[in-house]
Design a protein that fits this description.
mainly alpha; 56% helix; 154 residues; two-stranded antiparallel ribbon; binds zinc ion
């Protein structure tokens, strides 16, 4: 990890000279561990190929892909998940690249947004509205067995 450490330093230095990098998710700073994790992904993406590129090339790719994914808000803890998704959806015979990872992230994000929207719609559908409730007449409480209880709807 010696060389990736050095590369991480030089990438971070270069990055700093361009100004702070913040993402839409509010996490700031492209960290060394982010780059290291990405280096593992780059290496894995070439596993099984007959002519994997030299280490130096993989390091540069790791830096490029890190910047690409960081800029669109991929958190470090989700990098491997994004890679696995890209791998699952991959159809071309070329090795996975940064654009595949980015596209995989957008698919994950869209699916999560859809799931959150559907959950909210379901929550609203299940929410009991009492304004025309025949049980409580809009009071939101009822008397049952001589006790005042919250109305659970009709
Ligand atoms: Zn009610």
């Amino acid at each position: 990890m010696q060389r990736i450490d050095q590369l991480a330093d030089s990438v971070l230095e270069k990055r700093e000279s361009l100004g702070p990098l913040t993402t839409t998710s509010g996490e700031s700073g492209l960290s060394k561990s982010y780059l290291q994790r990405m280096f593992v992904i780059v290496s894995r993406s070439y596993a099984g190929t007959s002519h994997p590129p030299p280490e130096g090339v993989k390091q540069i790719k790791a830096a490029d892909w890190s910047e690409m994914l960081f800029a669109v808000g991929v958190p470090e803890r989700r990098l491997f998940e994004v890679y696995e998704r890209a791998l699952r959806d991959h159809t071309s015979h070329y090795a996975i690249n940064g654009y595949d990872l980015k596209a995989a992230w957008f698919r994950i994000r869209d699916e999560e947004a859809t799931a959150a929207y559907e959950a909210e719609m379901e929550r609203r559908r299940r929410a009991v509205h009492h304004y025309e409730c025949r049980r409580c007449g809009g009071q939101r409480w009822v008397f049952e067995d001589g006790m005042k209880r919250p109305c659970e709807g009709e």
